[in-house]
Amino acid sequence: MLESPTAIENAEAIAAIEGIDALLIGTNDLCMEMGIPGQLDHPEIEAAYRETISACKKHNKYPGMGGVYAPALMKKYIDLGSRFILAGNDLTFMLEGARNQAATVRAMA
Questions:
Q1: Which of 23, 60, 64, 93 would staple 84 via disulfide (CB 3.0–4.6 Å)?
Q2: Comparing C-alpha atoms, which of 20, 26, 59, 58 is closest to residue 45?
Q3: How confident is residue 22, by pLDDT bands cut at 50, 70 and 90?
Q4: DSSP, residue by residue, 31-82
Q5: What are the residues whose beta carbons fall under 8 Å from the beta carbon of 10, sequence distance 6 or more?
Q6: 94 CB contacts (<8 Å, ≥6 apart)?
Q7: How many CB atoms lie within 10 A of CB 98?
Q8: How far, in Å, are 8, 23, 26, 81 from residue 11 at the CA level?
Q9: In the predicted model, what is the mean pLDDT of residues 65-71?
Q10: Nearest-angstrom CA–CA distance, 72 and 46
Q11: Could you tell me if 52 and 10 are in contact, meaning their C-beta atoms sit under 8 angstroms apart?
Q12: SS3 for 5?
């Protein structure tokens, strides 16, 4: 996982390592390390994605995305070339399932 500016700067060298299949950007942690917490669409974050995706393409690795769950922003980074996608986490999936189940039960009452 690439979660710091230093990791992004070293994406090329990391992607060149035999046995590594994917470079996953931990977007929320990267934002925190860059001093732009929560700004998942910040130009510096987009630049980090571009740099990582470029390194992955060069070394035939999968560029990954974690921590980005808003559909429009997910599409942006997927369109740039992200291919290993964490589309949510345990908590968000459980909450969504609970909301759907509660809505179903309320509709029956």
A1: 64
A2: 26
A3: very high
A4: HHHTT-TT-TT-HHHHHHHHHHHHHHHHTT-EEEEES---HHHHHHHHHHT-
A5: none
A6: none
A7: 10
A8: 5, 8, 13, 15
A9: 94
A10: 14
A11: no
A12: helix
Q: Is the pTM of this model over 0.90?
A: no
* Gap between the Cα atoms of 24 and 53, Å rounded: 10
Domain 5-108 adopts which CATH fold?
A: TIM Barrel (3.20.20)
- Cα 104 to Cα 108: distance, rounded to the nearest angstrom: 7
User: Which three-class secondary structure string do you get for 6-27?
Assistant: HHHHCHHHHHCCCCCCEEEEEH
Residue reference for tokens 């571009």: 50
> Position 53: which residue type?
I
